[in-house]
Amino acid sequence: xxxxxxxxxxxxxxxxxxxxxxxxxxxxxxxxxxxxxxxxxxxxxxxxxxxxxxxxxxxxxxxxxxxxxxxxxxxxxxxxxxxxxxxxxxxxxxxxxxxxxxxxxxxxxxxxxxxxxxxxxxxxxxxxxxxxxxxxxxxxxxxxxxxxxxxxxxxxxxxxxxxxxxxxxxxxxxxxxxxxxxxxxxxxxxxxxxxxxxxxxxxxxxxxxxxxxxxxxxxxxxxxxxxxxxxxxxxxxxxxxxxxxxxxxxxxxxxxxxxxxxxxxxxxxxxxxxxxxxxxxxxxxxxxxxxxxxxxxxxxxxxxxxxxxxxxxxxxxxxxxxxxxxxxxxxxxxxxxxxxxxxxxxxxxxxxxxxxxxxxxxxxxxxxxxxxxxxxxxxxxxxxxxxxxxxxxxxxxxxxxxxxxxxxxxxxxxxxxxxxxxxxxxxxxxxxxxxxxxxxxxxxxxxxxxxxxxxxxxxxxxxxxxxxxxxxxxxxxxxxxxxxxxxxxxxxxxxxxxxxxxxxxxxxxxxxxxxxxxxxxxxxxxxxxxxxxxxxxxxxxxxxxxxxxxxxxxxxxxxxxxxxxxxxxxxxxxxxxxxxxxxxxxxxxxxxxxxxxxxxxxxxxxxxxxxxxxxxxxxxxxxxxxxxxxxxxxxxxxxxxxxxxxxxxxxxxxxxxxxxxxxxxxxxxxxxxxxxxxxxxxxxxxxxxxxxxxxxxxxxxxxxxxxxxxxxxxxxxxxxxxxxxxxxxxxxxxxxxxxxxxxxxxxxxxxxxxxxxxxxxxxxxxxxxxxxxxxxxxxxxxxxxxxxxxxxxxxxxxxxxxxxxxxxxxxxxxxxxxxxxxxxxxxxxxxxxxxxxxxxxxxxxxxxxxxxxxxxxxxxxxxxxxxxxxxxxxxxxxxxxxxxxxxxxxxxxxxxxxxxxxxxxxxxxxxxxxxxxxxxxxxxxxxxxxxxxxxxxxxxxxxxxxxxxxxxxxxxxxxxxxxxxxxxxxxxxxxxxxxxxxxxxxxxxxxxxxxxxxxxxxxxxxxxxxxxxxxxxxxxxxxxxxxxxxxxxxxxxxxxxxxxxxxxxxxxxxxxxxxxxxxxx
Length: 1065
Prior knowledge:
By secondary structure, the protein is α/β, with parallel strands linked by helices. Helix content is about 50%, strand content about 10%.
């Protein structure tokens, strides 16, 4: 360890004054191992250089990327220098012999292998490794050879740094007094240390009797007097320091909030690799906020206004670098940390879904015997609420504090809340209720009207941060003009977005063609790009590098070059475009300004993009008929792409329809006759070769087939008798300018779902999905979501409620489960299915029992958890179901509800195994089955054995009771109350109708279904088919639901993506 005088000396050399930095400095200088210093702000390297220079230590600085690195290393070893290696990304092979001290004796000398040479070893040789990467991960073999020293910023250190910035601006005389006091105090302490050393030296050098040594006694008295005066001076200095700190601490709340905002911004790194923001840019914003203030001079009000102003600046600065879908996430995360009183932590955890397992255990009435959630805690689920709200309601009422809030909501007032559910903007009426806090409103909207959560969050952010809009108003030109030569501008682009033309126009307007250079990367242009970088930096020109994501290996070299190059000309600008990538260099992101460029959504923008590709020269050589066909193709292509915004309703998954597909289709259509189009061939190529090859779902294939047949025909594209949408026909012209003008005039900026042939309430489903996305991302910021692996005791404490949840759930493994054997083939197929289902469920229970037994051992301290066990325990602590469990059984994401469903399924299968199967004995609930498709296949075998029909001739028909499936075959009744229908409504009589704009995104079936296997001779084809999936993501099809309707409604059901699914949560 080091003395206080050493620490004081280091501080004067530039070492940060916090305790962590001082401990790091001791480790760097005194540790036997080679230090690997994580130094994102370059504070440590600057201090080390100053420290060694003051102590006359011969040092040399190099980079592992330097061509002469091996030679520099060799000389440092040979002459015993101290080598500082910067920009380290890993341990280079040449360093291993040095780090391991693999010394060889050759006579009186010792040598070490450096590359291909054996170099004389000098004991004075030292090496220190420095990296700016906070995400650097070394393999175990390399990590054991170095001592990691982390100089990353801490909250307390940043708070003190910001406080110094404030004082320097607001009360510079206080900062000057503080510096003088600290200097005086340090000098006094150094003098006191010297007196102590002198005293020890005098005592050590004295001879004879100490009491008779008059010179020694005089010297001791002199030391005592000086020490007394120094001590008194230190006490006075300390008193003055306390008075000064009181004056400084008036501004500490602002500094504390500033530090809080920085760490809230840093949490964004968990969402997206591209969301890394540097500390220097943050401090520049802080200083800018101080300089821009011109309000009240009263300190208290000034601090409040400055704090809010800084939060606003940070929000806009960060938002320009975020995707639009993530701005609300950041805004709410910022508010939750910035206004903790408005969002109490316990209620916030309930809202984002991380506190479920740590709250009270589920009550006995949380799940009824048939699996329907009807109560939660002491609050009854309201009758006016949609069934999709049950899971969230139970989660809320399971928390004691949240349950108390629910009692204040007066949910029993059915008349009031029923009207509220039908309002187009229900958040507005909630905001007028003074009895509801913001957190109350957030929970209510999230639970009962999640489709309005997006709008309500927008309202909250604007209100609390006092903003006019969430959309940053800064243009690209302003960003470039106000930028710095030392800060590159990274444009993060999404698919379909290309800012190249806009950047080129700005550059030509601002600096002119002669001072603007653009290079498209990805084709071997990296050497030229590096040459142009140095030239433009020296001359003050603009350099535009496109598609950096295509050369990420070179991006690391660019990052090192930017860090090492001298300060560029003030007029220099480096502009980079890249798509998001998980391996983009972090340091380059932190040292740059970032702006996201996203393609505007909608049919209008999509069509305009197509006609940017098909320029005037392209259309001039086409006949009017060909031009009309191409417009129909552009419309068709836009339709396919824009339906992806409504996954899984528009398409079951996000298919990669691209500009390549459009070009291929255009080439095909242009090869047909100029006057006559072979529509059969054209439709076949579009449907089967160009677009259809990407589809992976039979329902989507039928949708594509219908869209192709509706658009690509003479009536629509040649004679223009049939409209594309709402009376809009294909423009009968081949003039490029006229077509573009037609698009601009006839298409809206924002699309209604109907333009994509989707139900009017499709937007509601999309917003509900986005609400889930918001909550999942906010949950990723939660401390419970990232339990510290080193906090073992805290982890064990949090596990206790999880173990209690398992103990009270009644899911003990059953020891009497009889496995299905080959001899069971002669049994009733349904009985065999029930036995195999029970066997699988019992296996899941046994697996969970083993997991909870291991967790119990962890709590008792008899087992060290594995990485997988720790990961699962962390998920359970947050109330979420681990991914491995979901692989075993799909179900709710809430752990209490998932376990309740598992118990329900196992208990139901045990009852089915005991009783003989009879199709008419009782209605079956598909939710009770782990494999509902297998249940229906077992019914198929049962039908074959009973009716003697051929297996291959049977076809499954499922329809509402009283529909087409009645009176034929051997069928079973399926309960409709666990099946949700999306995009349409099905009444108690089995009559289907299209959903309206105010309809819920999905509704429970109000009638039961009859499923029966019938021969193809008995099948009735005069119906529409609605697919039923295992979950809302539509990953696996169970069967098709047949409903009677006319052909027009059947077509709308197909194009509208109408489907049903089992609703777990």
